[in-house]
């Protein structure tokens, strides 16, 4: 049965702005986690935050590209008094929580929940408040505006904080430009970063709207589920020194080192994709948001001679590649923000400082979006038909020891075994309620 492609009419005034808006560049961000110790105070928190969280219909306003968003874990909904019968209508991955899904996600060994940063992955985390802004001053203004929502509520305890800031290079810690890709969502009014990708059905991201399969998923009661989304938060530590040492050891000279870095990622460090600049870096292309993400694979590079099939960006988003199944069913909104100071540019030894990325993966289907991509595309080789040559994502996959091969003629190039460059330090599955749902949570009486 064909899917109805009639554009969605979204209730933008009820959707949190942080669900659909791309992250600003540059940026500053903060993540705050709270535990609800008193149900009445937790409900008061919901009432208050409903007045400071901007909607997707709001204009940029005096703070520019700035927003505050509020997400609630399943334990948080229970702490607020949401009935079990209602909780049972939410996605089962959400009800289990990210820590319980660790094995399926590849969070094992040193990335296992037993090594996570407390209190992430525990029943203690109930509410996550996120503020994002173009700079520190506007971020502080946003936090100051939100502070009255949780300040002096003795039954709500702040238990964790993570500050994030754009690095001076406007890259992530491995040295690549980030924040490049953003899908278009029907009815959002926000353009996607790839003009060759048709907008996705709103139900891929907004609960209560038809998705790519024509289905509508809506936790109950409707006032709670409608216009909400799910978000997977991840704190990922990056071993920058190990990544640099690996490239240095595998390369024949500095020029070759940059080529290997591009083949592993699928982009040059400037952000220019191999698909559009296969022979050398093109910083002007990498800095151009209208061009740097507008490309496909299947027609011109199905075999991966330009952009290897196992590289990071091709695994995270295979675009039009038929080997990956129906790609549109697994698209997410991804946002990454860096934490920790950069490792000096010439250092090859670890300095013991924690640095990495806070990620937010937003969608309406935790199972076939975040979990599928993490378990099948990032940590398995089935969809890429490459056996142990592309057994996992070379940058963020697990466990260590997998191979990586660069297709080329006449002889392909096999790189040394890959150590683990990224470790999971924690994570949470959360629900991003609509603004009416926040008010409804604040008005619960039982």
From TrEMBL:
Alphabetized GO MF terms: peroxidase activity
UniProt keyword annotation of Transcription present: no
Superkingdom to which the source organism belongs: Bacteria
Keywords: Iron, Metal-binding, Oxidoreductase, Peroxidase
Cofactor: heme b
InterPro entries xref list: Dimeric_a/b-barrel (IPR011008), Dyp_peroxidase (IPR006314)
Family to which the UniProt record says this protein belongs: Belongs to the DyP-type peroxidase family.
Protein's name according to its UniProt entry: Peroxidase
Organism: Streptomyces olivaceiscleroticus
């Amino acid at each position: 049965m064909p899917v109805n492609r009639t554009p969605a009419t979204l209730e933008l005034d009820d959707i949190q702005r942080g669900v659909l808006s791309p992250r600003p560049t540059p940026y500053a961000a903060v993540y705050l986690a709270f535990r609800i110790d008193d149900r009445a105070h937790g409900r008061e928190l919901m009432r208050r935050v409903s007045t400071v969280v901007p909607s997707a219909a709001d204009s940029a306003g005096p703070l520019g590209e700035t927003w505050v968003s509020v997400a609630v874990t399943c334990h948080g909904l229970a702490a607020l008094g949401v009935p079990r019968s209602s909780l049972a209508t939410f996605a089962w991955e959400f009800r289990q929580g990210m820590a319980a899904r660790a094995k399926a996600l590849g969070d094992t060994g040193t990335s296992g929940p037993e090594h996570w940063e407390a209190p992430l992955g525990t029943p203690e985390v109930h509410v996550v408040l996120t503020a994002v802004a173009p700079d520190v001053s506007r971020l502080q203004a946003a936090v100051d505006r939100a502070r009255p929502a949780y300040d002096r509520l003795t039954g709500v305890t702040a238990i964790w904080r993570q500050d994030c800031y754009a690095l001076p290079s406007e890259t992530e810690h491995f040295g690549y430009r980030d924040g490049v890709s953003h899908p278009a969502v029907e009815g959002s009014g926000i353009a996607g970063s790839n003009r060759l990708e048709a907008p996705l059905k709103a139900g891929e991201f907004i609960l209560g709207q038809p998705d790519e399969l024509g289905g509508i998923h809506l936790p109950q009661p409707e006032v709670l589920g409608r216009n909400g989304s799910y978000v997977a938060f991840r704190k990922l530590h990056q071993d920058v020194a190990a990544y640099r040492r690996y490239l240095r050891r595998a390369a024949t000279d500095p020029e070759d080192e940059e080529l290997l870095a591009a083949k592993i990622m699928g982009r040059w460090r400037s952000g220019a994709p191999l698909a559009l600049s296969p022979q050398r870096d093109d910083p002007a292309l990498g800095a151009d948001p209208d061009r740097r993400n507008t490309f496909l694979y299947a027609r011109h590079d199905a075999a991966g001679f330009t952009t290897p099939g196992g590289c990071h960006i091709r695994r995270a988003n295979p675009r039009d590649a038929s080997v990956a199944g129906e790609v549109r069913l697994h698209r997410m909104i991804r946002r990454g923000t860096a934490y920790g100071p950069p490792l000096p540019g010439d250092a090859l030894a670890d300095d013991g400082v924690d640095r990495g990325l806070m990620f937010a993966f937003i969608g309406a289907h935790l199972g076939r979006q975040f979990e599928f991509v993490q378990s099948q595309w990032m940590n398995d080789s089935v969809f890429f038909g490459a056996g142990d040559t592309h057994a996992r994502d070379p940058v963020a996959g697990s466990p260590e020891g997998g191979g990586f091969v660069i297709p080329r003629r006449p002889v392909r190039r096999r790189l040394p075994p890959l150590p683990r460059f990224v470790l999971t330090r924690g994570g949470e599955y959360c629900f991003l309620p609509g603004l009416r749902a926040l008010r409804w949570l604040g008005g619960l009486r039982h």
